[in-house]
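G., the chain you wanted modeled:
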Amino acid sequence: MKTFDISSREHYRNKVFPSPFHAHQAALNENREWSRWYDYLSVPAYGCETLEYFAGRNTCGVFDLTPMVKHRIAGPDALPFLDRLVTRDVTKLAPGRVGYSAWCDDAGRVIDDGTIFHLREGEYRLCSQEHQIDWLSINARGFDVEISEVTHDIAALALQGPTSAAVLRRMGCSAVDALKPFGLAHMDFGGTELAISRTGYTGDLGYELWIDPDRAGTLWDRLFEAGELHGIRPMGSLALETLRIEAGFILAGRDFAPALQTVRQHNTRSPFELGLGWLVDFRKPLFNGRRALLEESRKGSRWALARLDIEDNKPAEHAYVYDTRQRKIGWVTSATWSPSAKKNVALATVRAPHGKPGEKMRVEIYYQRELAWHRKMAQAVVVEGPFWDPPRRRQTPPADF
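Predicted structure as tokens:
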């Protein structure tokens, strides 16, 4: 038996929602600019995106995570359902732990990636970039599981940066001392439950806070009060974009086309082609796309994800990538100048077998100065791993910066 609950939502009657943190955001939004993240208003930058970026690397930044799509999956078959749905082995995800994963169609093409929160026995939360309720409902046939979209029922903040643990300690969250990366803890917050996960999208020390929307304003106030002496600052999506590229994290719709939204299948990607082969567990007897992925593992992939260290400081946005013989082999999907790594970095999709660490390439960059367009063929090299990966990200207990 499977149920899908969205009847109580205003989801289909409103075009855009203010976040539960909107009043606090508006008071700090010096630029008075708003963007849209699916159903919600979001802030690109409160003031200077550079200062917000450095808060995420040197102190701590607060990003409104409420618009992230969230699904609750519960019931006797919640575990076998999820294990059938995604490529990783969910049976190894204990209560109080969070796991990153991807899920595919029958052809082994990635529909989306996201995080699975094992809240408690028989109850999970799946967070993703794209709305997945249709796909989840279709795949729930034959499972005794309840599925509901709870995006509007949970307010969330990402607290990211080296002083984030110190801020939470000052707020009375002693659980952060024992919380390991991808760990999840719960605490009482004025009569309601506050969930704290050691997760984030910046590749640095950081946490995500999950609470009832009615207590969102109180959480914001308490957080900024505790962080006053720790350099806390609100952070918009422009700063987060630079942080996630430095961390080498991919983004649906930017670094790959979700399979359910793509007309031409050759434009989709498999987990292997996105550098996510480590998430594919063939020891599981059955999961969506297993047969196709097993065949790909034997024959090889068409594409590869390449992390590029590029000469000079001109970001290679929308650039073509060439091999050393000047043959076009791919294109850049995300690019930025990394203030922390002091490098011009990019994520690119290139034709296999290109993309191996140490391989040299050339990137065709166009940039505008004083209304004139300039073309530069920049040297690039493929690097292994993220561009930014500080030890504090894994240190337990975290240092009290």
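Residues 8 and 152 are 10 Å apart (CA to CA).

Shout if anything looks off.
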